[in-house]
Amino acid sequence: MSIFAAVFAPNGKTWRGTEVDLGDVDVIDDVTDLMVDFAVERGGDLSLLLIEADDEWFALVRAEEDGEPRVYLSDARVVHDHALAAVLSEAGGLGAPQPAESAGARPNPAPDGDGRLLTDLGITEDELRSLSVGGGVLPSDVLAVVAERAGFAELLDDMRL
């Protein structure tokens, strides 16, 4: 499985970002330490982690220097098949629904987590949920919307080239 992950942190009105390797992540502290360190190095305390796995699912993690990470998974059922999603789910206190039975048609995703983690960046909980379950909307497209609203779309585009 191919996973794209990048952390972004604002410094005033300017965002900085870097692609990260989450292959050795076993606990959420590994993720949040990386995120907070990145933010602090850039003079802030907020960071966002965007994760996309093979156009199957995406995750968003918001970390701040003095708070618990906030996690959103586009489809909580993936925790049964993907170790990284399981780590994120445990950290966010998400409930993992039963895995979907493969009976031909792919069932709708089951988003879970803190849907309000991007409200101050212009994406409401309802909109995030709608993007997560919308037919034909790829996870990479949702991350592009997040990046556009937050103000780091060009950074994300450059990483994906």
Outline the structure in words.
This is Putative tRNA adenosine deaminase-associated protein. Residues 96-117 are annotated as: Disordered. With 161 residues, the chain is α+β, with helices and mostly antiparallel strands. The protein has one domain (3-97, 108-160). Helices cover 33% and strands 23% of the residues. The chain is built from 5 helices and 6 strands. It has helices at 28-41, 83-92, 125-133, 139-150, 153-160, and strands at residues 3-11, 14-19, 46-53, 57-64, 70-73, 112-113. The protein has a 6-stranded antiparallel beta sheet, with helices on both faces. Strand 3 and strand 4 form a beta hairpin. The longest helix has 14 residues, at 28-41. The chain starts with a strand and ends with a helix.
Features:
161 residues; 6-stranded antiparallel β-sheet; 33% helix; tRNA_Adeno_NH3ase_assoc_put; Putative tRNA adenosine deaminase-associated protein
Please write out the topology.
Blueprint (H helix, E strand, L loop, with lengths): L2 E9 L2 E6 L8 H14 L4 E8 L3 E8 L5 E4 L9 H10 L19 E2 L11 H9 L5 H12 L2 H8 L1
Antiparallel strand pairs: 1-2, 1-3, 3-4, 4-5, 5-6
Helix pairs in contact: 4-5
Give the overall shape, derived from the CA principal axes.
Answer: globular
Give a count of the beta strands, DSSP E runs of length 2 or more. 6
Q: Unreliable segments (pLDDT under 50, ≥5 consecutive)?
A: none
Oligomer: single chain
Give the topology string: H per helix, E per strand.
EEHEEEHEHHH
For the record, give the distance between the C-alpha atoms at the N and C termini, rounded to a whole number.
19 Å
- Overall pLDDT, averaged? 88
Count of domain modules: 1
Enumerate how many helices there are, as a single number.
Answer: 5
- Using only C-alpha atoms, the radius of gyration works out to 15 Å
- Biggest beta sheet attributes: 6 strands, antiparallel
